[in-house]
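Annex B. Sample input.
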Amino acid sequence: MTTNIAAPVWPAPRVAPAARQVTRGAPGSPRFARVVAALAAGLGAGHVWVMVAFPHGPWVGAVLGAMVLLCLKCAHRSWNNPTALVELLAMSALMAIVHTFMALGIHEHRHGGEATVATAGAGAAAMLGIAAAELALVMLCGIGLRLAASGPSAGGDAEHR
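Annex B, continued. Sample output.
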């Protein structure tokens, strides 16, 4: 059975657009992205410390070196461009996963009669610390992207550059 009763339609209320004031440190400004980029550069320095303080094989050292360079590249791009935080978020999430596996000793896998997964080495606490810092950076990147999306203008805080 069908009815011919139409649902009532109300016109949308007209809301005057609020005048946005661009102030220093406003959401969407590159200031938050710069803070996140500086923290990422600090994590890059932390990676260098881990590479120097704890012995690694040549392949693991090469991978860590490449990760440091990528970390610094993403931090540099995020300095004035909050939308580049997407790359930094993805890289930090990947690094957190890799560092967690490294802390568990997965990179020391041996074939043959030995255990399939070696026990965690002396640098496990440092690796877990770096992984936790990377997860914090992922969270901050997400906040920065959200602030950039709700910012006063698409170009960020152009008035204070």
